[in-house]
Structure formats: structure tokens, C-alpha cells
Amino acid sequence: MANAPAPDRAMAEAARAGDIDLDLFGPAHVKVYEETDGETGYLWNGAPICILTTTGETSGKTRKHPLIFGADGDAVVIVASNGGAPDHPQWYDNLVAQPEVGMQVLGDRYDGLARTALGDERARLWPMMTELWPSYDDYQAATDREIPVVVVERVASGA
Questions:
Q1: For position 95, which CATH number holds?
Q2: Rounded distance, CA 64 to CA 74, Å?
Q3: What residues make up the domain containing 83?
Q4: What pTM did the predictor assign?
Q5: I want to staple 92 with a disulfide (CB 3.0 to 4.6 A). Which of 5, 84, 88, 104 is the partner?
Q6: Are 77 and 128 within 8 A, CB to CB?
Q7: Rounded CA gap, 32 and 42, in Å?
Q8: Per-residue pLDDT for 26 more than 60?
């Protein structure tokens, strides 16, 4: 992630104010990100994006999700905000059930192990993530649930 483009807080604030670019979203975002190793789609409305691959809790199908992320050392940090909806996003339920995930950051693709940050760790990571995407604070205010913060650590190849 050392050579990654820098996040743009002003763009993220503009998105928060309603000036959001939805040209890349969902499956189209995943497709172009994978095809270009993140050259297109890494920064979305000023925030860095990774591609998370989960396995469906019930279906067993592989699903890919473009998500805003932060870095905590070598770990990737993502937020299960679901835009402040009352329920967690399905990808979060999937990774709780099966924490072995795929991860892509720019051209770096690897296997990871996901876990929910709790207590002091969550308290430390939340402000880092709201710095990248200020709308997370709005989402938290809109829901009664505590929005999960997820840490994905790289699994050593051959392990």
C-alpha cells in the first residue's frame, strides 16, 4: 500500500454533503478494479477501496464487494456500515460465519482471516475510518446497532 494514491478527505466530505459519484458501484466497480489492478477504482469519492471476497453463509457462493478500507499496520480495516441501515450488510454475516476471505488492494491479491474489532481496538480504529469516510459517523447516528469494524489479516501462503 506504500505506492497507493493518497485518500482525499475533501472529496469524501463532498460526498457526505451529497456530491457523490456513483459511476462506479457494486459489480461494475469490482470488474474494473480487478481488470486494472485498482488503477481505476482504487480511490472512490476520495476514499481508498479494496475488494473483499466472501463465501455466502447459506449459499456457499463466492461474492465480491468493493469496500472503503484503512490500514492498521499490515492489516486491512473495513466497516460494516450498510449505510446506517438497521441490519448488518450480508457480507459481514458471511465473514462472521466463514472468516476466511479473499482480499485485493490494488494489484495485491491474497487470502485473509477476518475478525470483528472489539473494545479498545474498535475505539482506536473507528476514528481512523471516519477520517477516511466521514459519513460513517452519520451512519452510526442513524442506527441503534453498533456498526462493526472488521480487521482482515493476511494469511501466510502455504499456511
A1: 2.30.110.10
A2: 21
A3: 9-154
A4: 0.94
A5: 88
A6: yes
A7: 10
A8: yes
What letter would DSSP give residue 154? Answer: E
Nearest to 151 by CA among 54, 79, 88, 81: 79
Alpha carbon of residue 96 to chain centroid: 15
DSSP 146: P
Query: How sure is the predictor about 2, in pLDDT bands with cuts at 50, 70 and 90?
Result: low
For residue 21, give every residue at least 6 positions away whose Cβ sits within 8 Å of its Cβ, in sequence order, or none: 15, 44, 45
In-domain check, residue 46 = yes
- What pLDDT score was predicted for residue 1? 63
Q: Please state the domain count of the chain.
A: 1
Q: Are 136 and 130 in contact (CB under 8 A)?
A: yes
Residues 6+ apart with CB under 8 A from 33: 40, 41, 42, 49, 51, 66, 104
Computed on alpha carbons and rounded to an integer, the radius of gyration of the chain in Å comes to: 15
Q: What is the pLDDT of residue 23?
A: 82
Query: Which residue reads 449459499 in cell numbers?
Result: 59
Grouping H, G, I as helix, E, B as strand and the rest as coil, residue 43 is: strand
3 assigned to some structural domain? no
Rounded Cα distance, 130 and 57, in Å: 28
HSE-up (13 A, CA, CB side) for residue 96: 11
159 found inside a domain: no
